[in-house]
Amino acid sequence: MAIFAAMPSRTLHTVLSPRLLNIYDVSNCIVVIIDVFRATSTIATALYNGAARVIPVDTVEQCIQIGKNTGGITAGERDGKVIEGLDYGNSPAEYPRSFIEGKTLVLTTTNGTRLLHMALNAGAAEVITGSFPNLSAVCDHLVAQDKNVILGCSAWKDRFNLEDTLFAGAVLNRISEHFTIHCDSSLMAMDLYSLHRHDINRFIRRTTHWHRLASYGLEKDLEYCVKEDLANVLPVYRDGDLVCSL
Amino acid sequence: MAIFAAMPSRTLHTVLSPRLLNIYDVSNCIVVIIDVFRATSTIATALYNGAARVIPVDTVEQCIQIGKNTGGITAGERDGKVIEGLDYGNSPAEYPRSFIEGKTLVLTTTNGTRLLHMALNAGAAEVITGSFPNLSAVCDHLVAQDKNVILGCSAWKDRFNLEDTLFAGAVLNRISEHFTIHCDSSLMAMDLYSLHRHDINRFIRRTTHWHRLASYGLEKDLEYCVKEDLANVLPVYRDGDLVCSL
Predict the structure, then answer these.
(1) Do the Cβ atoms of A3 and B158 come within 8 Å?
(2) Domains within chain A, CATH numbers bracketed
(3) Which residues, other chains included, contact B116 with Cβ-Cβ below 8 Å and sequence gap of 6+?
(4) What is the pLDDT of residue B140?
């Protein structure tokens, strides 16, 4: 790991809440949108299972309209629940290959899709999405590119959350040596990951998000979202769509 | 510790950056302003050494004006350096009893005094300041009052910092059982503290703030700021002044 040494010229910062994004210079950065429970886990899964594209949108109205225009499946959640008027929810389990292959998914979620559009508006060079199911694809891509990186945690209504930070720590654990890191958020994320990496299923039961979602019977869903590389593709934002990078 | 149990009615939240303060309902809360390096360490020390009061102000101009009006000592820093036009800096070592006893200190700092005024403007029931030198006084007070608590980290120009979060973890380690805690920031702060509590002097050498300030030769200063109970008083904000609570 390169901390405070005259080492790699690339920088990496971890942003703990969308509210903190504009403190950082996002231009010319690759921004990784992280929304472990569950938007970016679902995006990876749908694309891994052959979805043609995922269109992330901010509002329910946009979701319905774009669903009509594209013939896509409308999906989304607010506060962890399926939204009335949309076809499906925000669970990776809803998108097996037998259902989603070749289709367009139009997705709106509480936190992740909002941060994605904030990053685009802030002038990010590239926006990708990451969660444990596509950890390796994200890490390999970040190492291969010669760009500064922002790990963007979607948080919960702007409040810091543990699971997105844990994923930032998992990425850092693999790739920090390639970057110069003057960022306390990143150091903390690495600590958090090193403390809990061998016991993640127990760890997530402590999070506020677990208690919010598990009451809807989503335990299996949440455990899936913290398993590594089960849907190991790289979702990249291009012209309005998240598509698999080739 | 009471997490998600129908237990204490009092809540506690940790706010990781001033930018996140207004997500929380601050009214009727005791807000603990935390700026370990170095404003709240210096405030505790000056009051412990007999200062009549510390007047926290936002701007250098206010500092000079109020210094003139009160006959107080003007002090402050921006980006870790003494400000031209002010008498003294933001180091606890500058305020021994032989110098500060009975005097008024007018203090402006980069992060801590700003958060203090934000908390007041947000309607906090009480504002106190905390750092390791007055850890016990802070904890005893929070337990004794029947109020919700916000642990407010001053951060660095709105960026998360490790040392303020570490202090939040130290407070939580002592008093969390008295509160209901649905707050991932607090859980993370406790993890951070439990991971580093026995090796704090090594830990602070990893922080970005250490590298910022140690280049000015402030290593001893920073080590003082993370030692427990060397200036164990309770600074309380009353009518414009921080004074020792009796």
Answers:
(1) no
(2) 12-244 (3.90.1560.10)
(3) B33, B56, B127, B129, B237
(4) 98
Non-local (6+) Cβ contacts of B101 within 8 A are: B49, B50, B51
pLDDT tens by residue, A2-22 = 555 557 899 999 999 999 999
Given a contact cutoff of 8 angstroms between Cβ atoms, the answer to whether A71 and A60 are in contact is no
The Cα angle at residue A163 between residues A160 and A166, in degrees rounded to 5: 100
Contact A3 B206 (CB under 8 A): yes
Residue B199, CB half-sphere, CA atoms under 13 Å: how many?
7
A 181-240: CB under 8 A from B: 182-185, 187-188, 191-192, 195-196, 206-209, 211
DSSP per position, B87-108: SB-S-GGG--HHHHTT-EEEEE
Rounded to the nearest angstrom, the minimum Cα separation between B228 and chain A is 22
Within chain A, which residues score under 50 in pLDDT?
A: none
**Which of A4, A160, A187 is facing B184, going by the closest CB pair?**
A160
Check if A159 contacts B (Cβ < 8 Å).
Answer: yes
pLDDT of B79 strictly over 80: no
Report the 10 Å Cβ neighbour count for B71.
9
Q: CB under 8 Å to A191, separation ≥6 — which residues?
A: A169, B191, B192, B195, B196
The arithmetic mean of pLDDT across residues B185-214, rounded, is 94
State whether residue A149 is helix, strand or coil. strand
Q: Measured between CB atoms, does B159 come within 8 Å of chain A?
A: yes
Amino acid in position A8: P
Q: Does A20 touch chain B (CB under 8 A)?
A: yes
Residues A170, A191: Cα–Cα separation, whole Å = 10
Q: What residues of chain B lie within 8 A of the CB of A183, using their CB?
A: 159, 208
Q: With CB atoms and an 8 Å threshold, state whether A188 touches B4.
A: no
Beta-carbon separation of A162 and B192 below 8 A: no
Neighbour tally for B194: CB within 10 Å: 14
Residue A183, number of CB atoms within 10 A of its CB? 23
Taking the C-alpha atoms of residue B20 and residue B150, their distance in angstroms, rounded to an integer, is: 12
Cβ atoms of B120 and B215 closer than 8 Å? no
Give the best residue of B111, B199, B208, B213 to mutate against chain A (max A CB count within 10 A): B208
Does the beta-carbon distance from A209 to B182 stay under 8 Å?
no
pLDDT at B172 over 60: yes
Q: Which residue has the tokens 């859980």?
A: B187
How far are the Cα atoms of A151, B3, B172, B176 from residue B146, in angstroms, in the given order? 39, 18, 16, 14
